[in-house]
Amino acid sequence: MSEFLKTIPSLAALWLGILTSISPCPLATNIAAVSFIASRVTSQKLVLASGSLYTLGRTLTYTVLGALVCYGISSAPVVSKFLQHKLPQILGPLLILVGAFLLDIFKISLPLTGVSGVAERLADRGWALSSLLLGMIFALAFCPVSAALYFGALIPLSLHSGSHFLLPALFGIGTALPVVVAAFGLAFSAQVLFGLLDRIGQVEVILRKVTGAIFIAVGFYYSLVYIFRVL
């Protein structure tokens, strides 16, 4: 039982990445990456290699960013001591807020970063390892949903579990899973691939609502245990 509990943060990080990947903004960049891969490769091996490099690019970016944020926060003595005692209490209300956002109870507007356009221009120039560059740059194209899941859920989870590298890496892998599936689809059947992507877009709303409800439930549990101490 204890071993299973240790895997929960890893499974949660992977799921947060998957949920991010099928949200409208990241899904659009993933589809753009699939289109790029499809238009520039001529064999199954190259398709799969391009999909793997794209996944690696996203994973590296999220891992490095997550580690820098986590270590930056935990290395400050005052902040580190504060988090050791207060993070479980903060996590409850924070999960409730993220869950409410996922349920569209309130909305957040973020300025456009323009990194998607930069990635597309790099790809059009045919740079070496452009699939890797696409993954790295697209990972920085945060939209409200991906920012809320990454900074509002994954980073606190990484701090709470003490896993500054593994959880961000799993998140990055999750965000690229549609492209991995797409790479296999392109290698064998493009029609099946794009039909699958359409279905993913349709179920995203349902999965986001379910995850939002779970976040709120877990947030209330943490609040009852660590703030109100009634459980």
Q: Topology, pairings included?
A:
Blueprint: H1 2-21, H2 24-40, H3 44-75, H4 77-102, H5 115-124, H6 130-138, H7 144-161, H8 166-188, H9 190-227
Helix pairs in contact: 1-7, 1-8, 2-3, 2-6, 2-8, 3-6, 3-8, 4-7, 4-9, 5-6, 7-8, 8-9
Description:
The structure is a single chain. The protein is mostly helical and 231 residues long. Helix content is 84%, strand content 0%.
- Quaternary state of the chains: single chain
List how many beta strands DSSP finds: 0
The structural class is mainly alpha
Helix content: over 70%
The average pLDDT score comes to 79
Largest sheet entry: none
Strand content: under 5%
Low-pLDDT segments, ≥5 res: 123-128
SSE topology string = HHHHHHHHH
Number of contiguous helices: 9
- Rg for CA atoms: 19 Å
Overall geometric form: globular
How far apart lie the N and C ends?
20 Å
